[in-house]
Amino acid sequence: MKNDSYYIVTGGAGFIGSHLVEALNRRGHENITIVDRPDDPMRRSYLDDLAFRELMDPDEFRARVRRGVQAAPVTLFHMGACSSTTELDEAFLEDNNTRTTQELCAWCLRSGSRFVYASSAATYGDGTRGYADDETRLQELAPLNPYGWSKHRFDLWAREQGVLDRIAGLKYFNVYGPREDHKGEMRSVVHKAHRQILDTGEVRLFKSHRPEWGNGEQERDFVYVADAVAATLFFHDRPEVSGLFNCGTGRARTWLDLARAVFAAMDREPNIVFVDMPEVLRERYQYHTQAETAKLRQAGYDRAFTSLEDGVAATVRDGLAP
Q1: Which domain holds residue 114?
Q2: 238, 193: one domain
Q3: 7 a catalytic residue
Q4: Which of the residues 183, 192, 207, 295 is marked catalytic?
């Protein structure tokens, strides 16, 4: 039986997860289990200002769920996964990202808990099949990497099991903000650009290797982390709203826009250098992403998304070391 004052956040010592715990704290919730393995000082530091009941190792949590001894929450926010788009161990991703999510989803459905989970815009592949969060067209999508497939396979499983009308999955686009320092090469270009400017005075962007796109004019739908958290909590607040939903601004911006925003936030003149894209990435590189947001809006989500310039300024001001 679920406890209506108890929450679980997997990946709660990570990027989106720690911001989600912080938002729950602002609502007065501290009866929270964080499921994570913060095995470096940076990730452990994210927990310093958060209030929660316990920190549980993911393997222990999974074992407790399997044995039927884990207390059920009102909502399980499943943010924990391997998020590396360069991870090539498909067996690991199948177990860690797909099968674990299946187990936790099934447990929540049995327990009467709300299940809100992180899918990904990586499921859309190169975008030639669109960015519509249309559950009837899931079979048409073709992710570009094993990470995208590991997320997509769960979405397909949930549809095949007929449970998408009882759970909520968010296809996060390019989320950025404070607390990405631990992510290494997977951290956002906002973080990378800030460090490059401090170290060299310039920002390096990939050249375009397609004639229809200019250098730096490749586009992404950049989402400030506070907006990603607000959209996630919407599906906790509205348990009658279920399915797959894009979490994006609905507006594509260029890498040039992003770089210029970082320079402006640091009160410096732009100095942008273009470098060749590694050949290993060229066939798997997305030149354009843009969330279709009609479904999210029709579900009742009416909060405005933060502009790229404002989100970058807030990130540089509040979340990045000098």
Answers
A1: 2-175+222-250+292-305
A2: no
A3: no
A4: 183
Say what percent of the chain tops pLDDT 90. 80
Confidence of residue 309 (pLDDT cuts 50, 70, 90): very high
Residue 207 annotated among the catalytic residues of the structure: no
Count: domains in the chain: 2
Length of the chain: 322
Its pTM stands at: 0.94
Return the CATH number at 120: 3.40.50.720
The pLDDT value recorded for residue 175 is: 96
Q: Percent of the chain at pLDDT above 70?
A: 98
Kindly report, residue by residue over 249-272, the tens digit of the pLDDT. 999 999 999 999 999 999 999 999
Whether 123 and 210 map to the same domain: the answer is no
* Radius of gyration of the chain from its Cα atoms, rounded to whole angstroms: 19
CATH number for position 260: 3.90.25.10
Query: Is there a single domain that holds both residue 73 and residue 148?
Result: yes
Same domain, residue pair 226 and 156? yes
Residue of 124, 147, 172, 176 marked catalytic: 147
If asked whether residues 130 and 189 sit together in one domain, one would say no
Query: What pLDDT, in 10s, does the model give residues 9-22?
Result: 999 999 999 999 99
Shared-domain flag, residues 28 and 73: yes
Question: Does one domain contain both 19 and 149?
Answer: yes
